[in-house]
Amino acid sequence: MRILITGGAGFLGSHLADRLIADSHDVICMDNLFTGTKRNIAHLVDNPRFEFIRHDVIDSFKVEVDQIYNLACPASPVHYQHNAIKTIKTSVMGAINCLGLAKRVNARVFQASTSEVYGDPDIHPQPESYWGSVNPIGMRSCYDEGKRCAETLFFDYHRQNGVDIRVVRIFNTYGPRMSPEDGRVVSNFIVQALKGEDITVYGDGSQTRSFCYFSDLIEGFVSLMEQESIVGPVNIGNPGEFTMLELAEKVVALTGTRSKIVHHELPSDDPKQRRPDISLAKKALGWEPTVPLEEGLKTTIAYFKEYLGG
Ligand code: NAD
Ligand code: UDP
Question: Which of 99, 121, 204, 206 is most buried, judged by most C-beta within 10 A?
Answer without folding.
Answer: 99
